């Protein structure tokens, strides 16, 4: 049968900022979270407290650091710039209504993977830095224990979560996935015969069925 290794990735989106409330593009601009909104994360805080993470990785931007501080997860933390949101360049702080008549913007919406944001980041650059993060993560050493599982929390941004999920679950397109602030995706990956694949996806925090 051979030995399989398992990895649980909890991909959590940061809390709400003022620009998020105003529906402004927010990439590398360093806005903090609205502290008044953090109390909405109590269910997430409780759920994560019941888990024993091997490590926590977070974007270096304030909105992620402040959200993580509020959640108070008892694990070693590494700050990693590779899991920042895409850099929106000239569109940082702008709204859809402010950009909708810009032809370059409209073309980008229809073909974001092949067109770059003015003075911002291309899809290839965005994906490449996240890919290097994932490659390092998947090389995390396992003991010889059969069926060992590692648990990692990744505090990051909506675009990063969309890309990681679409990478491991090809049936889910990048724009198809919507992750609210203070929520996330739980992926279970299994490594068998040297290859990693996703065998489970669920939302975080767990959504209880209505009675």
UniProtKB/TrEMBL annotation:
GO CC entries: cytosol
InterPro entries linked: His_Pase_superF_clade-1, His_PPase_superfam, Phosphoglycerate_Mutase
Organism: Ureibacillus acetophenoni
SMART domains on file: PGAM
Keyword Cytoplasm belongs to the record: no
Protein name as catalogued: Alpha-ribazole phosphatase
Endpoints of the signal sequence: none
Biological process annotations from GO: negative regulation of glycolytic process; regulation of pentose-phosphate shunt
UniProt: substrate binding residues: 13-20, 63
One of the record's GO molecular function terms: fructose-2,6-bisphosphate 2-phosphatase activity
SUPFAM superfamilies with a match to the protein in the record: Phosphoglycerate mutase-like
Keywords: Hydrolase
UniProt entry tagged with the keyword Magnesium: no
Spans through the membrane: none
């Amino acid at each position: 049968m051979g030995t399989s290794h398992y990895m649980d990735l909890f991909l959590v989106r940061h809390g709400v900022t003022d620009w998020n409330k105003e529906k402004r593009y927010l990439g590398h601009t360093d806005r903090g979270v609205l502290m008044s909104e953090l109390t909405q994360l109590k269910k997430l805080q409780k759920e994560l407290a019941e888990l024993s993470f091997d490590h926590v990785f977070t974007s270096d931007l304030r909105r992620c650091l402040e959200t993580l501080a509020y959640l108070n997860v008892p694990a070693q933390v590494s700050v990693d710039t590779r899991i920042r949101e895409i850099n929106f360049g000239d569109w940082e702080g702008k709204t859809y209504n402010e950009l909708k008549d810009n032809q370059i913007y409209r073309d980008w919406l229809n073909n974001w993977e092949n067109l770059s944001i003015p003075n911002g980041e291309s899809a290839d650059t965005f994906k490449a830095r996240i890919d290097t993060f994932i490659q390092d993560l998947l090389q995390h050493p396992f003991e010889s224990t059969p069926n060992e599982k590692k648990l990692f929390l990744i505090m990051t941004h909506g675009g990063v979560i969309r890309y990681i999920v679409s990478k491991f679950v090809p049936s889910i397109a990048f724009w198809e996935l919507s992750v609210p602030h203070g929520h996330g995706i739980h992926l279970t990956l299994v490594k068998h015969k040297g290859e990693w694949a996703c065998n489970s996806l669920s939302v975080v925090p767990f959504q209880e069925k209505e009675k």
